[in-house]
């Protein structure tokens, strides 16, 4: 019996788009225990301050722990303002590099020498985003007078640099939203409200 539906050809990816398979991932050598995000919201410019508490969990190679750089994912029109570890501002070229992501699409921020020997360390990343220019409906964008976020599947990398992968989840998240009351009378985030 014939079907009333027209057959559809499989989706074709462009050369710049690449599938990322589970086999592409190596175990992530860092554990994020706490993430604190602070948003200074306006439709044309949003500043995001991200503070992460991180512990190095070294991969064992030949019976010995090896060191690894810390790779963070980014994408879209987001701009890096600054990056620091334990309050020390990092310098591009010496302490970190910023370049294309290895699997196509987006950018990779590589912290070259994170403090592997420390029990844990604090990584701060400050980014600038432009919600009214974001047309992908991912990351931070505007729609019908509202400033919204969409973090799944890979939208979080349009907000701040982060290891945007399924095995890099923080245990505790704290979010602070700040905006002019006239332009943003209602501020809403997931989780429990702890202050106003």
UniProtKB/TrEMBL annotation:
One of its GO terms (cellular component) is chloroplast. SUPFAM superfamilies: Leukotriene A4 hydrolase N-terminal domain. One of its GO terms (molecular function) is zinc ion binding. InterPro entries: Aminopeptidase_N-like_N (IPR045357), Aminopeptidase_N-like_N_sf (IPR042097), Peptidase_M1_pepN (IPR012779). It holds the Pfam family Peptidase_M1_N. Residues 135-194 form the Aminopeptidase N-like N-terminal domain. PANTHER family: PUROMYCIN-SENSITIVE AMINOPEPTIDASE. This is Aminopeptidase N-like N-terminal domain-containing protein. It comes from Hemiselmis andersenii.
């Amino acid at each position: 019996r014939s079907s009333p539906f027209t057959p559809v050809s499989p989706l074709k990816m462009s050369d710049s788009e690449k599938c990322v398979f589970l086999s592409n991932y190596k175990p992530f050598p860092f554990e994020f225990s706490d993430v604190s995000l602070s948003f200074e919201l306006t439709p044309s410019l949003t500043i995001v301050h991200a503070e992460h508490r991180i512990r190095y969990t070294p991969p064992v190679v030949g019976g010995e722990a090896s060191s690894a750089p810390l790779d963070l994912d980014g994408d879209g029109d987001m701009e890096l303002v600054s990056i620091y570890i334990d309050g020390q501002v990092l310098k591009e070229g010496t302490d970190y590099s910023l370049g294309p992501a290895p699997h196509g699409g987006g950018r990779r921020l590589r912290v070259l020498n994170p403090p592997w020997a420390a029990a844990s360390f604090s990584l701060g990343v400050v980014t600038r985003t432009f919600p009214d220019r974001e047309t992908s409906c991912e990351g931070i964008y505007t729609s019908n007078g509202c400033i919204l976020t969409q973090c799944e599947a890979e939208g979080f990398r349009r907000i701040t640099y982060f290891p945007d992968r399924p095995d890099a989840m923080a245990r505790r998240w704290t979010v602070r939203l700040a905006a002019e009351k006239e332009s943003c009378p209602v501020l809403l985030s997931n989780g429990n409200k702890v202050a106003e």
